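Researcher: Please predict.
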Amino acid sequence: MWEDSTTFTCMHRGPNCLLEQQGTSCPPASDGLGGVCRATCGDGVRGPVEECDDGNSVSGDGCSATCQVERGFTCSGGGLKSMDTCWPICGDGLRVDRTYAPTLAADKLEGCDTGPLPSRGCDATCQVRVGWTCARPQGQGEEVCVPVCGDGILSTPMEECDDMNLQPGDGCSPDCKVEAFFECTYDDFWLRSVCKVHCGDGRKHPSEACDDGNVWDEDGCSSTCESEPGFECLGGGLTLPSTCTPICGDGYEVFGEGCDDGNQIPWDGCDQFCQVEQSYHCTRAPKPGQSGAASACSPTCGDGLLNGEEECDGSYSPLPGNGTEPPVPCSRCRLLAVDVCGDFRRGPTEQ
């Protein structure tokens, strides 16, 4: 007959109560009756008043030294013929680690326990996922899991990048955020984020020679944000793009120039802005890095305008005649030789 939670009175004769109830024992009374019997905690047999019995009398492994189920654990499988097995309750918000359960087998310990709600850093078996760390802020409250910044493992969305270091100014900040001017991609071979200055965003980083807001070549600022030969790039900063203009007069023809005759003198066919002047045509100058001569410009013969070394042009002639003499003929913008009576030179047609 049970008297309290841990003892009962043996009502049958016998040397001890093991004859009546396996898992209990008691010293016999003088008359063999009325002995006080107690459940034997730790013998691997769960008695009627024991919540568990895991075969030892040590606390901190799920079943306490008094055979009570400890907080954060669940125990099952015990009875008159088998001992209990105790496991931490994953998802109850209590992390059963070595500090909490010093005698629990290592394969049963929890690395984290964030409660019933799913967590990116704590998996369904209460183990910390790779690339994460879990802790309670100031040692109290709910456990919080955050990515380990600097380990090279990209844990989105909390991490925008992870370049395997905590160095600022390299594109990925010490808190794993993409820094201004940069763009980062994850390299599956190197297993880390690779960050490069974002060329073409119109913001000039100190490592860029220029940034004109695009990634086109041959416009002065290349697709890698380097200044191209034949151009001069000025300005650019956090909010303004670089401005690139051709260098007129260097003998090389680049985008935006119609000619480049090696000077900035107007009225020679290629003006001071390296544009072909009216009534002229110019040869193409080489691009930077190529060999060749600068632009050569000549008047356009036949347009009726007298330019450069032209002696005449079409109907225009500096010697139109005087009423008695015909106009001097013009051929290919050159005056033809004529016999002029009275010039004291006898020409082929003069007698």
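Model: The mean pLDDT is 85.
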